[in-house]
Design brief:
- This protein is of the alpha/beta class and about 800 residues long.
- Helix content is about 30%, strand content about 20%.
- It contains 29 helices and 27 strands.
- The protein has a six-stranded mixed β-sheet, with helices on both faces. The protein has a six-stranded mixed β-sheet with strand order 21-24-25-20-26-27, with helices on both faces. A three-stranded antiparallel β-sheet has the order 2-1-4, with helices on one face.
């Protein structure tokens, strides 16, 4: 056999397949992007910076990640695509060198009440297998330990066909599940207050139900009055015992109402399926108010809230049941699993240890596997999603992160940085939208967008290394090394809110006085008990209710694509009235959801065309050209502008427009002032809420709540999504609130806000059961001088103390 030998000393030319080492974007115009062109290195960590609204998410999520996911979806059959989110091609000329994109965003995790931290990751599945193999006594397969699998048994005759003919045999079967039969695996039982569900003095035809959506002329009302099981004109209090049982508990039954085939079901099982299957936090406000009024939740007395059957709880490994394991703090569970040595399940134990260690490493060791997924914050949900990617065998994919440091104490940010670098070092491209200088510092490549927000942004101001950014004259470059100084003097409190014996979640009998009339910052590592202290204890104190507490948390704004800042803040009402008064017509004409709506697109501005199993296509309405109003309505003017032109204005423009001249409208101007105060001067009045970033939505809520008559404001990480340059504006806003006589309590990790505080309450020293205690109370200067806590050390380093 002849061997070819190389006589040359030069290294071979690189293979053509290795030349595709860039993601090229040319001519991106999504949202406010202005023909943006960038080249991003693959298998590197790229951080995107810029002020809020500069176009970071438009470039990373709405262009690069969206096109990658759209192209992957197109590889599936048309039938499967019909069940996937419809994504149109981003407005961009060239997108080249894309790889599979995995988006790890801050969307809250499933609203299903059966979803827990364990089920959302692989941890529960691995534990179930472990207990089915090693648990004593042995009770069955892994599904015998699943609270989502019910135990089923049955028997009967089966017909078997063979060459010899048919024979009948009796067979029986059984499935052993781990679901508690009393609570059906939810861990809680419900008790309905019937008086809050209907007025028993009314008949079904009079609309007795007080349940949202169950009016007499609605579908549900028509089903109950037309089902034929009851006399629709008979008051409910006169129902027989059988009739009342059928109204409340009847099993699903086929009926016909107005010639339409339907299924009738008792009121209580129907509510349990439609409303109570969701997590409370995910309910719409009016439904949540009804549930709070009509339903009482208590831990299931049979399973003690563990969701598991008695058999599943009886099988143990070294005295620990699967219910005990899921209730443990994950850091403790990791130690327990680490102490198990069983060669027959060694690979399984190795995988489980890695998963649990990843929780600890990512800063979530204080959670437990039975924690409902819907109760996690946005930052916790994002880090939980990261768990499944850390052990992934995939390489050469693009991971896209949206501010992964949200909710992290400065002590924990270094851990997150290490994880991002680990993902990169496995040969992946990591794209991160971020404002924290600690994470910007580890980037291989930086793309800075701006220079401003909204229409003033959308261009690339800088592209290169971190050192290059530091030396550039961009807003981010100039503020990268900003450090807030400690205040020379602090305000004196005017009183105090007393918290005594707080034991919510991990709090350990905490007694603390929160001063009034000053800016108080509650801080501590993630999981130390900050939210438990403020939201779980303070708001429930009777003294807090008397003080008029306004709480602004990070919950998502509920709204459709028709919702916009003008409708959400109530700004549209005075604007409509001003147009109506000047033109002598009805205010309803100036609503795109009412009489003034374009009849062709019903005020949506676009027409959605359903193409069966193919993607729905959205096209701009030709009748109104996307303006959403009838042509006759657009003839009415205020200050020389029609209603569509007003809704296209930015907050800054509108503030000037409604401040003087014919269009002067004090009520509208007041709301616009508040929007500008929270740094939203660049957003347009008619911009759909679905296009706003998380930080923008939170500040929109803040602007709306600022009008409420509250003596105490509670803000939950208001720096979320804020650029370094905008934090200064936020501090000014907090000062104005305090100076106007309000008390402001802020849960925050940002050192600039800590340094600006009048009083700091630091919780810790660790997370979970290692936290829950007040480790420091005092002024920021005292905290820096003492350096007695993790927060004190990081704040001292930040201010150069």
């Amino acid at each position: 056999m002849n061997r070819a030998t190389s006589t040359g000393t030069q290294s071979p030319a690189p293979h053509v397949a290795d030349s595709h080492d860039l993601i090229r974007v040319h001519g991106a115009r999504e949202n406010n992007l202005k023909d943006v062109s960038v080249e991003l290195p693959k298998r590197r960590l790229t951080v995107f910076t810029g002020v809020s609204g500069s176009g970071k998410s438009s470039l990373v999520f709405a262009t690069i990640a969206a096109e990658s996911q759209r192209m992957i979806n197109e590889t599936y059959s048309a039938f499967l695509q019909g069940f996937m989110p419809n994504q149109s091609r981003p407005d961009v000329d060239v997108l080249d060198g894309l790889t599979t994109a995995i988006i790890v965003d801050q969307e809250r995790m499933g609203a299903n009440s059966r979803s827990t931290v364990g089920t959302a990751t692989d941890a529960n599945a691995l534990l179930r297998i472990l207990f089915s193999r090693l648990g004593k006594p042995h009770i069955g397969s892994p599904q015998a330990f699943s609270f989502n699998v019910a135990s089923i048994s049955g028997k009967g005759a089966v017909t078997i066909e063979t060459k010899a003919g048919k024979s009948v045999e009796r067979r029986s079967f059984s499935i052993t599940g781990g679901m508690c039969p009393n609570c059906e695996g939810t861990g809680r039982v419900t008790d309905f207050d019937l008086t809050a569900m209907y007025d028993d003095s009314k008949s079904l035809s009079e609309g007795p139900f007080t349940v949202p959506g169950y009016s007499a002329d609605g579908w549900y009302g028509r089903i109950y009055s037309g089902c034929g099981f009851f006399d629709p004109d008979k008051p409910i209090r006169e129902f027989t015992e059988r009739e009342l049982h059928d109204l409340l508990y009847k099993e699903p039954t086929k009926i016909k109402v107005d010639g339409i085939n339907l299924t009738y079901e008792g009121l209580i099982p129907k509510l349990q399926k439609s409303m109570l299957s969701k997590d409370r936090e995910a309910m719409q406000p009016h439904i949540r108010a009804f549930v709070d009024r009509a339903v009482t939740f208590t831990a299931c007395p049979e399973c003690g809230g563990t969701r598991l059957s008695e058999a599943a709880r009886s099988s143990k490994i070294k005295g620990i049941s699967i219910a005990d394991a899921c209730a443990m703090q994950i850091s403790d569970l990791a130690k327990w699993v680490g102490g198990l040595d069983e060669p027959s399940v060694a690979p399984l134990l190795g995988t489980l240890r890695h998963t649990l260690d990843s929780f600890v490493e990512i800063g979530l060791g204080y959670l437990s596997l039975d924690r409902p997924a819907g109760t996690l914050s946005g930052g916790e949900a994002q880090r939980t999603k990261m768990i499944r990617h850390l052990g992934s065998s995939l390489t050469d994919v693009t991971y896209v992160f949206d501010e992964p440091t949200i909710g992290l104490h400065p002590h924990d940010i270094q851990r997150m940085n290490n994880l991002l670098l680990r993902l990169r070092d496995k040969g992946n491209t990591v794209l991160v939208v971020e404002h924290k200088p600690e994470t910007i510092a580890i980037a291989d490549h930086v793309v800075d967008l701006g220079p401003g927000a909204g229409t003033a942004g959308g261009t690339v101001c800088f592209e290169g290394t971190v050192e290059g950014l530091r030396g550039s004259d961009t807003i981010t470059g100039r503020h990268l090394d900003d450090r807030a100084a400690l205040k020379e003097s602090v305000r004196k409190p005017t009183g105090a809110l007393e918290i005594r014996g707080a034991r919510a979640n991990n709090l350990q009998n905490v007694d603390v006085d929160i001063p009034l009339g000053v800016l108080t910052v509650v801080t501590g590592v993630a999981g130390s008990g900050k939210s438990s202290l403020v939201h779980g204890s303070l708001i429930q104190q009777s003294g807090a209710a008397d003080a008029g507490v306004v709480s602004i948390d990070q919950g998502a704004i509920k709204g459709s694509r028709r919702s916009n800042p003008a409708t959400y803040t109530g700004l549209l009402d005075p604007i409509r009235k001003a147009f109506a008064k000047v033109n002598g017509v009805k205010p309803a004409l100036f609503s795109s959801n009412s009489e003034g709506a374009c009849p062709t697109c019903n005020g949506a501005g676009v027409i959605y065309t359903e193409l069966g199993v193919m993607a729905t296509v959205a096209t701009t309405c030709e009748e109104c050209e996307g303006k959403r109003f009838q042509a006759s309505v657009l003839e009415y003017r205020l200050g020389g502008r029609d209603i569509s032109e007003v809704l296209a204005m930015s907050v800054t423009e509108a503030e000037e427009f409604f401040g003087t001249g014919e269009a002067r409208t004090p009520a509208a101007h007041k709301i616009l002032d508040r929007l500008a105060d929270v740094g939203l001067g660049y957003i347009t009045l008619g911009q759909p809420l679905t296009t706003l970033s998380g930080g923008e939505r939170q500040r929109l809520k803040l602007a709306t709540h600022m009008s409420e008559k509250g003596g105490t404001y509670i803000l939950d990480e208001p720096t979320t999504g804020l650029h370094l340059a905008d934090v200064e504006q936020l501090l000014g806003l907090l000062d104005r609130l305090v100076d106007s006589g309000k008390s402001v309590i802020v849960i925050e990790h940002h050192q600039a806000v800590m340094a600006h505080a009048d009083w700091i309450i630091d919780l810790g020293p660790g997370a979970g059961h290692d936290g829950g205690r007040v480790v420091f109370e005092g002024t920021p200067a005292d905290l820096v001088a003492a350096r007695s806590t993790l927060t004190g050390e990081h704040l001292a380093e930040y201010v150069g103390g």
